[in-house]
Design goal:
The complex is a heterodimer. The radius of gyration of chain A is 13 Å and the shape is globular. Chain A has one domain: Dynein light chain 2a, cytoplasmic (Beta-Lactamase, 2-Layer Sandwich), CATH 3.30.450. Chain A contains 3 helices and 5 strands. By secondary structure, chain A is an alpha+beta fold. A 5-stranded antiparallel beta sheet of chain A has the order 2-1-5-4-3, with helices on both faces. The longest helix of chain A is centred in the middle third of the chain and has 22 residues. Chain B is an alpha+beta fold. Chain B has one domain: 2-Layer Sandwich (Beta-Lactamase), CATH 3.30.450.30. In chain B, helix 1 runs antiparallel to helix 3. The longest helix of chain B is centred in the middle third of the chain and has 24 residues. The chains are: A alpha+beta, B alpha+beta.
């Protein structure tokens, strides 16, 4: 993967109406690998906290015996956070408006996760 | 385990940092290795060793940066199999300080440690006293002051 292909993967996600930004996050470190965000979104903060949450969710799922998570979505008053963990430990994250088409975003996140490995 | 501080204005910012970043060990010290506050250490000898080594690393990287004609490096992170070490300098009204944080990779991450470090810097700057005239340290006072500091840092 190159920086250009990371950017292309993120570009497809941010084309979905209502998506305010997309990021690739190193799941273990909580650091931003690539980002495509609207102004005002604190990328490093979202990356660190989303990765921390992903780690805890993974443990909860393991403890519950449900296996690995493929997708999770947090709905909030003024927006949402959608995350797909990639096979290599990279998290594909989308920050959205509350009324976004979550199914379409999920599809693009899964495509991006497959592309980044 | 609680944060122990020689200078009380460091207590709350460091307590918040420890809880939010999930750090296992934290030292707040001057670039010379004088410890202002600590969290997680149980033996004085460990604090002294960590402070001396952290200060030495800071001095080394600062000199490397100087030789490269660059401003001092902002932060240094070293990750092992289970733990990470984060070392960074900051400036406050009290003068230049150094934070050394050790974190479990199972509990925290570099992203979290860095993220909340920014908040720690803000809080320390807001709470720090203005730097006064440096006090002259006499050899006769040094050992007594060191012992007093260590007593405070370990609650003895």
């Amino acid at each position: 993967m190159t920086a250009a292909s990371f950017a292309q993967a993120l570009d497809q996600i941010t084309r979905v109406p209502g998506v305010r930004g997309a990021m690739l996050v190193a799941g273990d470190d909580g650091l931003v690998v690539a980002e495509h965000l609207m102004e005002g979104i604190r990328g490093p903060a979202v990356a660190a906290l989303a990765a921390s949450l992903a780690t805890r969710l993974r443990r909860a799922m393991q403890a519950a015996g449900t296996g690995a998570g493929h997708f999770w979505q947090l709905l909030c008053e003024r927006g949402g956070l959608l995350v797909v963990p990639g096979a290599s430990g990279i998290l594909v994250v989308a920050i959205t408006a509350p009324d976004v088409n979550a199914g379409l975003v999920r599809l693009e996140l899964l495509r991006a996760a497959e592309a980044v490995g | 385990m609680t944060v122990r501080a020689v200078e009380s204005w460091t207590l709350q910012p460091l307590t918040d940092y420890v809880h939010e970043a999930g750090a296992r060990l934290v030292l707040l010290m001057t670039p010379a290795g004088q410890v202002l506050a600590q969290f997680g250490f149980t033996r004085a000898v460990d604090v002294m060793a960590a402070a001396a080594l952290g200060a030495a690393i800071m001095a080394t990287t600062t000199e490397l940066a100087r030789q490269l004609g660059q401003p001092p490096f902002a932060a240094l992170n070293h990750q092992g199999q289970r733990h990470g070490i984060f070392l960074s300098g900051l400036t406050t009204g009290r003068g230049a300080l150094v934070v050394l944080a050790v974190y479990d990779l199972d509990v925290s991450s570099l992203g979290l440690v860095q993220l909340f470090f920014e908040q720690l810097v803000t809080d320390l700057r807001a709470g720090s006293p203005r730097e006064g005239v440096p006090k002259q340290v006499l050899a006769a006072d040094f050992e007594r002051e060191l012992n007093e500091s260590l007593s405070t840092l370990f609650g003895r």
